Structure formats: C-alpha cells, structure tokens
C-alpha cells in the first residue's frame, strides 16, 4: 500500500511563523512556538485549536492607537446621544 505524504500546514501571524500542523503516525499535531499539542482526529480540528489559541495572544499596540480608538468611540457615543435626543423631540411633537 502506497501512502501519500501529507505536507505540513504553516500558520502565519503577519510575517512571523506562528504554528505548524503536521501529520504523524497517531494523528494531526500542532506546534505553536515550541509547544506541542495533539493528536487531533483531523487537520481542521488542529487548525481550530490554533485559531482559538491565537485569539488570546495580545497584539502589540501601535503608538496612539488606543487614544484614536477612544476618540472614535466617544464620537460614536455623541452621535448616538444626538440621534436619541432628536428622536425623542420628534416623538414629543
């Protein structure tokens, strides 16, 4: 019986290699920055675990990003309050 070789899957975080998913004798294994997880029944399950772990990785902040986000949120809230006041004025007439 000829077995087909399954090439490893690589997961990148931007330009950096984040994880590798490869098939071994007992199933699919995931390696995230020298931490090994597995075996998994399918490569989709291994990728799902990588995605779940990746969401918890804190992103590096860009200078001024939080301040810009706070300003944007405040602007949205101001517009929402103005819309609510305008709605209540229209209903009250």
SSE map:
Blueprint: E1 9-13, E2 16-24, E3 27-32, E4 35-40, H1 43-55, H2 65-92
Antiparallel strand pairs: 1-2, 2-3, 3-4
Describe the overall structure.
This protein has about 90 residues and is an alpha+beta fold. It folds into 2 domains: about 1-60; about 60-93. The protein contains 2 helices and 4 strands; from the N terminus they run ββββαα. Strands 1-2-3-4 form a 4-stranded antiparallel sheet, with helices on one face. The model has no long low-confidence stretch (mean pLDDT about 80).
Please sum up the structure shown.
This protein is of the alpha+beta class and 93 residues long. It has 2 domains: 1-60; 62-93.
Shape: elongated
Helix % is 40-55%
**What separation lies between the terminal Cα atoms?**
82 Å
Number of strands: 4
Biggest beta-sheet profile: 4 strands, antiparallel
Secondary-structure class: alpha+beta
Mean pLDDT: 82
Strand order across the biggest sheet? 1-2-3-4
Number of domains: 2
Proportion of beta-strand residues: 25-35%
Query: What is the H-and-E element order?
Result: EEEEHH
Summed up, the helix count is: 2
| Rg of Cα set | 24 Å
Note poorly predicted spans.
none
């Amino acid at each position: 019986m000829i077995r087909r070789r399954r090439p490893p899957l690589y997961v990148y975080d931007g330009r950096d290699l984040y994880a590798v998913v490869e098939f071994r004798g007992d199933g699919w294994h995931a390696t995230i920055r020298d931490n090994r997880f597995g075996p998994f029944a399918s490569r989709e399950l291994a990728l799902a675990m990588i995605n779940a772990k990746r969401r918890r990785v804190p992103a590096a902040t860009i200078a001024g990003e939080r301040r810009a986000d706070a300003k944007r949120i405040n602007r949205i809230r101001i517009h929402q309050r103005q819309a609510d006041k305008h709605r209540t004025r229209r209903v009250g007439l």
